[in-house]
Design brief:
By secondary structure, this protein is α+β, with helices and mostly antiparallel strands. It has a domain at 83-164 and 402-449: Dna Ligase, domain 1, CATH 3.30.1490. The protein contains 13 helices and 20 strands. A 5-stranded mixed β-sheet has the order 3-2-1-6-13, sandwiched between helices. Strands 16-15-14-19-20 form a 5-stranded mixed β-sheet, with helices on both faces. It has a 4-stranded antiparallel β-sheet with strand order 7-12-9-10. Helix 2 packs across helix 11 (376-386), helix 6 (234-245) packs across helix 7 and helix 6 packs antiparallel against helix 8 (288-312). It is elongated and about 85 Å long.
């Protein structure tokens, strides 16, 4: 298999690293393998030991390379919502006094101006989502290239992350002998596969039950409107089981996976299983109802804290309800528990591709899918942010087969500045699904320039 056609989505979690490999040579993304490796060196979603984290990343990449019998060359890594900050960004440049045709370099110049103006000290850009380009301050277009203009303006959303955290992630990946191609925002990556078009437009909550953290992200009108992070997750449930039953964490994790229920009402005290107890030669019999009560106590605390923020921001009025994902969502009955706690429709999402049928792979799959569906303008953005050596997710695309614009490119409105400030302070205005931005265009023009010509000119 041509290694240039392979793309790896990396999800570096607190308890495990997940790597998803996809073949991008055909018209549709084809997943060919996935692997995970227990994580060392992470705490609450952040790297605390680069060497240990690098070893975990290396283990996951080696496993997936062996599974797929392939050599990995391109990696794209997800950045969790806890590290993201959103900024409203605008850039303006002159094209020519007499008016001249807008080219790729002009687009890169105006993108650079917008990103530089919005970037804050101590942070680095992750992605920029253009919402509109203005020709001569008047004509609103999606792609200004080949149009005649005197001036070019861009409006959009800049997503940034702390410089120190990005440095640590890059270093950990580089220590494995690989290099990260670019980063993508994990919540938008998950939304690209876990939510349908209606849910992304009219609003839904993504509840990501991870090992070290629990995050709830509100997606409305194709944008992140609110996010809340709880620094507890599946590992805390495991620690509770270990402490209460006086057993090792390894044993606690095992029985959580094999016998754990999130809702005691789904269990029976008559169903028992043996547990290895520290200091005792014979195992102790524990019933599944008692185990479920231990699990439920921690989940109830997490949902109560997360739910308060969601309720304060009217998120439970969104018609899309709650979509649950993440490794901890594999606990039996978690969807019914969330539904009863939040009093809203709930479903669990997990990829249905062969080899990915586990919710732990949702973020990794989403990262690959998000990268695969980037268009020409997105790659111009990435060339500005990451330099000219960034590689396309789809290396072989015919000039006669243009790609569609991705759905996250919604139009900017006068309220977006307030929305970004509210998000960064974890305070957002009402997300009533009946309210829509004025002037939002319903359709996007197909890109007219093929990838082959584009990348030959700018990235070879």
């Amino acid at each position: 298999m041509n290694k240039s056609n392979l793309l790896v989505g990396l999800d570096i979690g607190t308890t495990s690293v997940k790597a998803v490999v996809a073949d991008t040579s055909s018209k549709e993304l084809r997943i060919i393998g996935a692997a995970n490796e227990p994580t060392s060196g992470m705490r609450h979603g952040k790297i605390v030991d680069i060497d240990e984290t690098a070893a975990s990343i290396s283990g996951a990449l080696k496993k997936v390379a062996q599974k797929t019998n392939s050599k990995i060359s391109r990696i794209v890594t997800g950045i969790p919502v806890g590290l993201l900050q959103l900024e409203n960004a605008t850039g303006l440049i002159n094209i020519g006094e007499q008016g001249q045709e807008v080219g790729d370099n002009d687009v890169k110049r105006v993108l650079s101006a917008a990103i530089s103006a919005a970037l804050k000290d101590g942070r680095q850009p992750i992605a920029f989502l253009p919402s509109k380009f203005l020709i001569d301050g008047r004509t609103d277009v999606d792609d200004p290239r080949k149009m005649i203009a005197h001036s070019l303006e861009v409006h959009g959303i800049l997503l940034t992350a702390p410089t120190a955290d990005l440095h640590n992630i890059r270093k950990a990946i580089e220590k494995t002998g690989y290099q990260n191609n670019f980063f993508v925002p994990t919540p938008l990556a998950i939304a690209s596969i876990a939510l349908d078009e209606g849910e992304r437009t009219f609003g839904a909550i993504i509840l990501d039950l991870g090992g070290g953290t629990t995050t709830a992200t509100v997606i409305h009108e194709n944008k992140i409107k609110y996010a809340t992070i709880d620094l507890e997750g599946g590992i805390d449930i495991t620690n509770d089981i270990s402490a209460v039953l006086n057993t090792s964490r390894k044993e606690a994790e095992k029985i959580k996976i094999e016998f754990g229920y999130s809702d005691p009402e789904l269990t029976s005290a008559d169903n028992q299983f043996p547990v290895k107890v520290v200091g005792e030669s014979a195992p102790k019999m524990i019933d599944e109802e008692y185990l479920s009560e231990i699990i439920n106590a921690r989940i109830d605390q997490i949902l109560t804290r997360v739910g308060k923020g969601l309720n304060d921001h009217d998120a439970f009025t969104l018609p899309g309800g709650v979509v649950i994902t993440g490794g901890t969502s594999a606990l039996q009955g978690i969807d019914d528990l969330v539904k009863s706690s939040f009093n809203i429709k709930t479903r669990i999402f997990q990829p249905d591709q062969m080899g990915l049928r586990n919710p732990m792979y949702t973020a990794g799959f989403g990262v690959v899918n998000y990268a695969y569906n980037l268009d020409d303008i997105d790659y111009l953005v990435n060339s500005v942010i990451y330099g000219g050596d960034v590689l396309p997710a789809v290396p072989h695309t015919s000039d006669s087969e243009p790609r569609e614009n991705k759905f996250f490119k919604s139009q900017a409105t006068s309220s977006e500045i307030v929305e970004k400030e509210d998000y960064n302070n974890n305070k957002v205005a009402s997300v009533n699904p009946r309210m829509t931005d004025e002037g939002v265009k319903k359709t996007k023009k197909d890109n007219k320039k093929g990838f082959k010509e584009f990348f030959k000119k700018f990235f070879d």
